[in-house]
# Entry
Amino acid sequence: MFIEPIKCKKCGLSGYAAEEPFQMSNSSDGSQLHCKCGNTIELKDQEAIDQQILSKNTFSRLTSVSNYSESGTLTLKPGESVNVQFSRHIDYICKVFLTPNAQVLTKEAFVSSKSMIVLTSIPPIHGNTPPIVDITWMVYGLINVDLLPAWHIHFYSAITQNENRLYKAAVIDYAVAFETFLESFLVEKFTSQFGNDLSKYILKRINKIEDRTKELLQYAIGYRLTERADVYQPWDDHVRRPRNRLAHGERLFIGKDEAEAAHSACYQAIRWIQSQNDIPRR
# Structure
């Protein structure tokens, strides 16, 4: 399975969720994409998740990968600061968004799992700044991390690094997320087939990620990652090779485009392996 962008059957335009030409809405009945031509496209549960995670729209992506978000509105004078208490403990905070309704500067500070301080200031060059402003805030994060798969936590960490423009760190974390996912996947498959001791022996003998995507996947599900060039090649080009070069101290330029390519390649590879799990072995 390769997750293609959604294509509108009415106008032919395509994109992932919340990217041009689509807007996305969620309701109790499911998720819908609304094309700018007026057509509405219904998405199934997993399809909606895939589309949102592969979207370059920050809010769409974070909504899908976060298992907790909280928001509120503050009313204060420009130049004031305020302490915001979260309604519950957040194990891991990815991103805070502050949106004022006037031309003021805002910044979060001292962000912890329980609270944050919101700072405001008047910009050096400004128009008529009102005496009172409203600031909408939103925080995305993870709760109950002990119950989450390890690969998801690493994947979330990579997204956090990407959002914070730490692109080299993001690529390394995407590589770790995939390696962690594949190891846990193989452990589960081999333990159920051969028992715990032999499973550990196999993974210890074949520990290079490149070999695991080929030989061990072949043993586990009957398919190699290399059988899908559109999945394997982006992972190899944008995740495995850059990670190895960075790990060996090379001076390698990694920008936003490279980090986004690693994000897509990592998730596509994970989802392809997951989709093969229920397919009978050849």
User: Anything to note?
Assistant: The radius of gyration is 22 Å. Residues 167-194 form the longest helix (28 residues). The CA atoms of residues 94 and 141 lie 5 Å apart.
